[in-house]
Amino acid sequence: MTDKPEVIIIGGGAAGCATAYNLSLSGIKCAVIEREGIGSQASGYAAGGLNPLEGTNIPGPLGALAMESYTLHKTLRESLKESTNIDYQWRLINLLKVCFDDSESPDLPEIHARFNEFPDASFSAEWLTAQELRNLEPRISPESLSGLLVNGNAAVNSYQYTLALANAAENLGASFINGTVTGIHRQNDLATGVTLDGQYIPCETLVIATGPWSQDAAHWLGTEIPISPLKGEILRLELNGAPLKYDFSGGGGSIYSKPDGQIWCGSTEEWKGFDKELTESAKTSIMAGATKLVPDLLNSTLALHTACLRPVTPDWLPIIGPAPLWDNVFLATGAGKKGILLSPAIGKSISDLITQGTTELSIESCQPDRIATGYVT
Fold it and tell me: In angstroms, rounded to a whole number, what is the distance separating the alpha carbons of residues 195 and 128?
């Protein structure tokens, strides 16, 4: 590298690339270091759902940030496409939440109310009878009793979205480096650079955006970063006949209908450390849930079986902000199953903190010092 970057970002997932994009928009020269390739981990394999009104801590401490990030997604879709010519399939989706017995989804009345009471009229929900479900999709299971049609969520191709962020940042002057960081250099409470495959690269500011591998940075920083990898496996299926027009959930299954006609099914949740081995047990479990929703999937063809690791904190809130004990190190990690949704807000808030010292985004509950504490090495 001929020019010294002002900011080094370790991690080439959606959070790291969104940070690079926002910093580059502000005229900051940054470098992203990624050891396996852009979007090579969870950001490249996620189902890509953008559902800001549901999930752990929503409503709750993550609710405001989730909606702010969803709004940023809507702004990004045209600017990224214009800048990169990458169509990452941003689209609104319709979700059918299917009930097979009266006790299966006690939270559906709350979801119904939340979507219909939200000020943005594009979010809505409608109760459906079993016949109304089958009128929308005749292939849905005849065992379904009722359902909820949820409108307003969106989805993207997560890998292409991450790649678009990276390309847009690169077009603005960011650099991307393949390699493994093995340590950082410091002077008092300042990080002065990193060791990359034995080479010293100086910087003025450091961002850790390494997902589940953020633990690796703990001994560099002398700061505990409590993040655990949550393994998730997904099946990508080819279905004979017309594509499904809806996403589905219920009966222990989830189905995501893709623009290319593929059906993604999953995902599992297992605490298996850093094991990403594909398992027959996960395949069996996923197929059981998917075929309960749409029995025709029994005759589908498996196109791809994938596994990834999501970064999860003890309270299921991301870690966004300055690292304890450091004056120029920032953490942008721990978004769990909401990484693609939250990435625009993570990237912009970190960029704001670096360039302005503050941000208007709702990251109060995501501050590192709530769980990332300093310790003596």
Answer: 58
CA distance 116 to 231: 33
Mean pLDDT on 314-341: 97
Q: For residue 77, give both structure tokens.
A: 């879709």
Q: What angle, rounded to 10 degrees, do the helices at 339-356 and 14-25 form? A: 40
In sequence order, what are the residues at sequence separation of 6 or more whose Cβ sits closer than 8 angstroms to the Cβ of residue 92? 122, 151, 152, 153, 154
Euclidean distance between CA atoms 132 and 181, whole angstroms: 55
User: What is the predicted pLDDT for the residue at 231?
Assistant: 98
Q: 219 vs 90, 201, 269, CA distance in Å?
A: 39, 19, 28
Which of 312, 339, 357 is the last residue before a domain boundary?
Answer: 312
For 142-154, write each residue's pLDDT tens digit: 999 999 999 999 9
As given in the structure block, the two tokens for residue 16 are 């790291």
| Containing structural domain, residue 148 | 94-152+229-312
- Tell me the pLDDT tens digit for each residue of 155-201: 999 999 999 999 999 999 999 999 999 999 999 999 999 999 999 99
Total tally of structural domains belonging to the chain: 2
Q: Judging by DSSP bridges, how do beta strands 205-208 and 253-257 pair with one another?
A: unpaired
Q: How far is CA 176 from the centre of its chain?
A: 21
First to last CA, the chain: 32
